[in-house]
């Protein structure tokens, strides 16, 4: 754990013992034998945490803690006491201490408390700088991020945007696929022409055909006038087909023909009308599996998948979570006419720990709710939705010999399947191969776990 600790104790032997132990754990430290010397060291050096004894000649540990909190509230202080009473602990906390430990000190426990204090200090610094970082962060159109995954995405988008090739955007629900599609359009030579979007899952087959390809008057009962389809409305610009994995199988040949011939035939017409659009499609489905299961045409898949852009899930974007949270916080604070400075550091920790199954969309909703509910100038943990506030990781950990902490095999299997699915980015075909199951077995187990399996191959 990186970080520098200042140890303040009037017993030099205690300082030396703690310094030596911390060095074995990779934590740098310095020590002083009086509170006055400790204050001078803080003025002259850079530290991430302070460990001080309670009883010292002259200024006490509590006095030192109060001075540090008054002048350096970002610097966490841990107080050591040989008395271990509740009154002492309360006094330390009232003085602004981050934590306290009792003497005789258990070095493993002390190191853990110091590591947490250092993490607290570094996170507090990140939160303090969030607003500045937000306005200096890497961007591509309205997309925002500093993580390696997003830097790679921005690089790919900057190259793809200049081409006219079809693009397939893949990623989990809520990762911002339409935002990426709009960014590609806005950075392309077609930016001054229309951007037309349609959700393929939102319309029944008959209406979807009419929306995309248009129709002639009298083609069906409600066709009281000619209608230009979206291919023609997007002429010269970009057509975005969202939820392509839900596109009706019966209409896929007509879509394929339109893309190959660059013409459309409206419903009820015998005339082919040329168009000029760039196609961008998006899906959160595994289209390769859909092709294998004959639910999506292979030739259409290759036609739309000329260039594939994979969007990273929010859980793999590190501190981008905090940047995005600050962005949405400022957005909703302005809308609600509230003066909100940012996130409390404990809130930031919760946001970083959460797995974000709903990705950026879920984070945006959480920040909108928090801004609406908060009574303070910083978003507190209590302002977050219950499932974020109470979240416990499903990550598989086997590191205890305590029988009370060991898990039944069913729970181990459940956590491992979710762990593999996460590593496979939700691709159930790949996950089944890793697990050594056939797909039918994996889908059956997912059903037992209560996971959604609408495309169960066993049906």
> What is the overall number of helices?
19
Instruction: Tell me the CATH architecture of the largest domain.
Output: 3-Layer(aba) Sandwich
Radius of gyration equals: 29 Å
Q: For this structure, what is the CATH class of the largest domain?
A: Alpha Beta
- Which percent bin holds the helix content? 40-55%
Domain module tally: 4
Per the CATH scheme, the topology name of the largest domain is Rossmann fold
CATH superfamily of the largest domain: P-loop containing nucleotide triphosphate hydrolases
Low-confidence stretches: 396-405
Query: How many E strands?
Result: 16
Q: Determine the strand fraction and express it as a percent band.
A: 5-15%
Could you give the distance between the termini?
51 Å
Overall shape: it is elongated
Average of the residue pLDDT scores: 87
Helix/strand-derived class?
Answer: alpha/beta
**Main beta-sheet strand count, sense and barrel state:** 5 strands, parallel
| Adjacency order of strands in the biggest sheet | 2-1-3-4-5
Question: Overview of this structure, please?
Answer:
A hairpin with an 8-residue loop joins β11 and β12 (273-274). It contains 19 helices and 16 strands. It is an alpha/beta fold. Residues 396-405 have low confidence and may be disordered. α2 (35-44) packs parallel to α3 (61-71) and α18 (428-435) packs across α19 (439-448). The chain is 46% helix and 13% strand. The chain is elongated. The protein has four domains: 4-134, Response regulator (Rossmann fold, 3-Layer(aba) Sandwich), CATH 3.40.50; 144-310, P-loop containing nucleotide triphosphate hydrolases (Rossmann fold, 3-Layer(aba) Sandwich); 314-389, Helicase, Ruva Protein, domain 3 (Orthogonal Bundle), CATH 1.10.8.60; 394-459, Homeodomain-like (Arc Repressor Mutant, subunit A). Strands 2-1-3-4-5 form a five-stranded parallel beta sheet, sandwiched between helices. A five-stranded parallel beta sheet has the order 9-10-13-8-14. Strands 6-7 form a two-stranded antiparallel sheet. 33% of the residues are buried.
